[in-house]
User: Which sequence fits this backbone?
């Protein structure tokens, strides 16, 4: 326990390899795939091209949702002729959509590469449409474009767009920031309640009308490491960030909860007794997988920005050897504690030149490579075991009760490799 | 602006990727923003390819827009050439790059790269995936085919044909190639080049050496085949060999083009007998709704009508370029052609068609699931389960066998349906009992999945709507047809302006919809 609770040692910055070249990452629009499930009365309307629509349905994969709460207003040739017409067209699409889906209370106009490049001003469009559709629907905008965001940054942009909507509330409260599966959110709420932190709220809320307040009394924990803009926006509203390791595994979760407990003046002995059962369960669950994972090497291709805390978890709690931690963007401030807990000399890389990075994977031949869906089968074909990074974003992996599941996600490809005799 | 939930086709550069990924020795340098690399997963995940598509993306970001994206493009092209050493490169822009107007084609052509550069102009705001594939293939053929290389004199050599159209991510293209190659071999005809899938730029240069062309997928190969005919005088086939009759006609057409005698009675496989055997009597007049790409939809309609005895009650396609084919076919079956790429319109049409089987794409599969209708997939776009491990062609006589199995499987089959109807008063079919094959004892606790308890609860026993006696009668109908009976009755009542549904209404409706 002492390891996790020690303040981050001021060690020298780890070596960071910065690369530019082809980046094999999703754009920020992809976040819609989980955000639209989380906020149940919100609709995400991408203003973009056929490519955007195609990306969303490819990333949503199985296409099982009958009529999902997202869609694309596809820009066509005539929309490019004049922006006035494009605005008019957009208004028409929104009217039609809202007429069809009266249950929608919050509509996000989501900017894309084409809408950014043609400078279609979605914030003004949102203002304009708000006048028409208030008070039934609130219309906001953010950009999920690939030229400005990668993958999980889309969630950051979305949540940052919600912050100005939060009412002023000076009361002391704890805010959990970042979309978590409901079940995980409920687990955390129970723990905070047991600890004695009375007011706990989440951003995003499950329903638009439950958007929490914010103010100088707000202390917030980031549940995800990719929320730089959201954190900054909350800070301008007077909220204070509680730095901590991210809640992955027994240690990460303990440290994360402890940051809040300390801030809210919770007695140390009480804290220990509250977290002990979950922490012990997590450790027991991890022990089963440690046997399989300990000593195995792992290479992270940049994908979700979860790479650094996950590498911390796998190295510190499961004994894996980290070959390289690639991340699209390294937020040094928010990741300080996780970076400090990485084994000394761990190679971190920021940005990507995918072909060069694959050369490094092939040279190192790690036991496991965490990568995007475009790379997984080709690496498997080369005899390298892989873990799809996207599953780490879609699955419940935070907190004590999911620690074993998280470890299992990494263990399963190795188990499979050992089992298969074809 | 078009509001889209799901799309049938991707942007045109995805079509170009399908061509490039099907080939070897060709590399695609695509000027595209970060994020457009998602398209790789279509090939590596859905088609389970073990190699990355041969595509280099420039993946520019906002900070690059202020500087020099053209330079970024040239660097990417140079690096791609050095790393992959392709025989030829295709270059182009995705939708966003099209807007910044860097002219990747012009840039690449001035670079002096030591391989042929084929420039693609694929307007993303007006065209789509199939068109992009066709245009890419046409440009490759036009620019690489060596006009000096023509078919040598016969001199007793074997006849040879090119197979044109198959690409990566195509619906059963992999297996159709094998089947058609076999079919041609049986006629003494060799496959000279199969392209794009399976070919290389070097092989494309010799396309002119074949005696004629076989167009498997007009959506992709029609433009190229027309150019080859104009340039080399190569005739090309118009019949798509999907279904027994179409395959017979295809054989006849090939023989006519090749100037050989058609076989008198080719072995047409099992399908004709499977369809004639008595169990298939129950397929007669099944109402089927068909939607897909035009080629597959038209072929499916013919099989449904001529070879399975179904009734075609809806026919449509999502690719406007081939709408004429659908219109012609729709006229033949006396239905309104449905030409749209709006998923919601298709859904409404299927719901209104009152059909018993849906033949469509991945999208119709989901529509059918929601409407609780049986469905089989006949056309791209498809998902991972429609790239089966087993050989599973659509074309040729084996393709017809596969189609029989695939379409009939989702329907309750003849003997089975007969027995279910005969014994429908049997206590085991009552809702209170679970299916007997799931074991005894616990049977009463188990509810069969197909029962629609929710719907029944919502049946309102008011003067308007279902009367108690009619509702009780409805409950006597076996669960597997009850939903349909209820729908038909309600539709009938609405049409006739009947507000209170009685037992009388129920049987009036039954008589009305009886065939």
Assistant:
């Amino acid at each position: 326990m002492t390891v996790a609770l020690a303040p981050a040692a001021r060690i020298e910055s780890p070596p960071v390899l910065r690369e530019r070249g082809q980046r094999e990452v999703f754009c920020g629009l992809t976040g819609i795939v989980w955000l639209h499930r989380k906020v149940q009365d919100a609709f995400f309307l991408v203003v973009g091209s056929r490519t955007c629509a195609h990306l969303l349905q490819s990333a949503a994969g199985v296409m099982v949702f009958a009529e999902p709460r997202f869609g694309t207003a596809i820009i066509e040739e005539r929309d490019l002729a004049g922006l006035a017409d494009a605005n008019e067209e957009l208004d028409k699409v929104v009217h039609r959509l809202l007429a069809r889906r009266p249950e929608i209370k919050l509509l996000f106009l989501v900017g894309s590469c084409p809408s950014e490049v043609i400078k279609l001003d979605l914030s003004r469009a949102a203002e304009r449409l708000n006048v028409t559709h208030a008070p039934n629907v609130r219309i906001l905008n953010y950009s999920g474009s690939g030229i400005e965001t990668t993958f999980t940054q889309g969630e950051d942009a979305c949540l940052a767009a919600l912050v100005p909507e939060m009412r002023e509330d000076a009361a002391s409260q704890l805010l959990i920031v970042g979309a978590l599966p409901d079940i995980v959110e409920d687990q955390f709420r129970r723990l905070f309640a047991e600890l004695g932190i009375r007011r706990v709220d989440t951003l995003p809320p499950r329903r638009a009308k439950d958007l929490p307040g914010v103010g100088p009394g707000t202390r917030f924990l980031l549940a995800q490491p990719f929320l730089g803009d959201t954190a900054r926006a909350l800070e301008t509203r007077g909220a204070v960030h509680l730095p901590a390791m991210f809640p992955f595994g027994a240690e990460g979760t303990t440290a994360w909860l402890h940051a809040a407990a300390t801030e809210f003046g919770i007695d140390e002995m009480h804290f220990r007794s509250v977290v002990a059962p979950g922490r012990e369960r997590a450790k027991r669950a991890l022990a089963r997988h440690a046997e399989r994972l300990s000593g195995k090497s792992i290479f992270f291709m940049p994908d979700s920005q979860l790479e650094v805390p996950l590498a911390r978890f796998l190295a510190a709690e499961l004994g894996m050897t980290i070959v390289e931690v690639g991340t699209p963007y390294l937020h040094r401030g928010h990741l300080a504690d996780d970076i400090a807990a990485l084994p000394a000399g761990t190679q971190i890389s920021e940005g990507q030149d995918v072909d060069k990075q694959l050369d490094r994977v092939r040279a190192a031949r790690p036991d496991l490579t965490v990568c995007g869906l475009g790379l997984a089968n080709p690496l498997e074909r080369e005899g390298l075991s892989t873990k799809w990074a996207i599953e780490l974003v879609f699955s419940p992996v935070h907190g004590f009760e999911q620690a074993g599941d998280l470890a299992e996600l990494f263990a399963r490809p190795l188990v499979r490799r050992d089992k298969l005799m074809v | 602006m078009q509001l889209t939930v799901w799309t049938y086709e991707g942007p045109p550069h995805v079509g170009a990727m399908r061509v490039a990924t099907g080939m070897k020795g060709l590399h695609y340098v695509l000027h595209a923003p970060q994020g457009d690399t998602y398209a790789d997963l279509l090939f590596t995940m859905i088609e389970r390819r073990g190699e990355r598509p041969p595509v280099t993306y420039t993946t520019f970001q906002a900070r690059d827009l202020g500087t020099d994206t053209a330079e970024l493009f040239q660097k990417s092209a140079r690096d791609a050439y050095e790393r992959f050493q392709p025989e030829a490169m295709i270059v182009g822009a995705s939708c966003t790059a099209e807007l910044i107007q860097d002219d990747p084609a012009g840039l690449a052509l001035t670079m002096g790269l030591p391989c042929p550069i084929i420039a693609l102009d694929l307007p993303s705001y007006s065209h789509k995936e199939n068109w992009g594939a066709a245009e890419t293939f046409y440009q490759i053929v036009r620019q690489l085919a060596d006009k000096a290389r023509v078919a040598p004199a016969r001199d007793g050599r074997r006849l040879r044909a090119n197979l044109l159209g198959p690409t990566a991510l195509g619906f059963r293209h992999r297996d159709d190639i094998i089947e058609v190659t076999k079919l041609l071999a049986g006629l003494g005809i060799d496959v000279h080049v199969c392209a794009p899938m399976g070919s290389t730029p070097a092989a494309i240069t010799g396309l002119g050496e074949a005696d004629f062309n076989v167009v498997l997928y007009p959506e992709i190969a029609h433009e190229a085949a027309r150019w080859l005919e104009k340039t080399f005088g190569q005739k090309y086939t118009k019949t798509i060999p999907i279904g027994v009759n179409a395959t017979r006609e295809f054989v006849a057409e090939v023989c006519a083009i090749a100037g050989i005698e058609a076989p008198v009675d080719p072995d047409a496989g099992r399908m004709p007998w499977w369809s004639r055997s008595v169990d298939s009597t129950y397929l007669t007049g099944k109402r089927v709704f068909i939607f897909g790409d035009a080629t597959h939809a038209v072929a499916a309609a013919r099989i449904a009508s001529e070879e399975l005895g179904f009734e075609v009650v809806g026919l449509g396609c999502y690719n406007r370029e081939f709408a004429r084919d659908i219109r012609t076919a729709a006229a033949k079956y006396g239905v309104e052609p449905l030409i749209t790429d709006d998923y919601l319109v298709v859904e409404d049409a299927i719901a209104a068609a009152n059909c018993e089987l849906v033949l469509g794409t991945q999208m119709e599969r989901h529509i059918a699931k929601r409407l609780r209708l049986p469905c089989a997939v006949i056309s791209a776009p498809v998902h991972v389960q429609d790239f089966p491990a087993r050989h599973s062609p659509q074309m040729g006589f084996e393709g017809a066998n596969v189609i029989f199995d695939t379409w009939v499987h989702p329907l309750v089959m003849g003997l089975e349906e007969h027995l279910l109807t005969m014994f429908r008063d049997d206590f085991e079919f009552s809702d209170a009992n679970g299916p007997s094959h799931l074991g005894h004892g616990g049977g009463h606790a188990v509810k069969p999945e197909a029962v629609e308890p929710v719907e029944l609860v919502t049946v309102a026993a008011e003067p308007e709507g279902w009367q108690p006696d009619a509702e009780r009668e409805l409950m006597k109908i076996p669960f597997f047809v009850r939903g349909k009976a209820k729908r038909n009755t309600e539709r009938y009542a609405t049409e006739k302006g009947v507000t209170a549904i009685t037992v009388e209404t129920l049987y009036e409706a039954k008589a009305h919809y009886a065939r």
Notes: The domain at 173-269 of chain A is CATH 3.40.50.1980 (Rossmann fold). Chain A has three domains: 7-23+283-419, 28-149, 173-269. The first strand of chain A starts at residue 16 and ends at 20. Residues 1-10 of chain A have pLDDT under 50 and may be disordered.
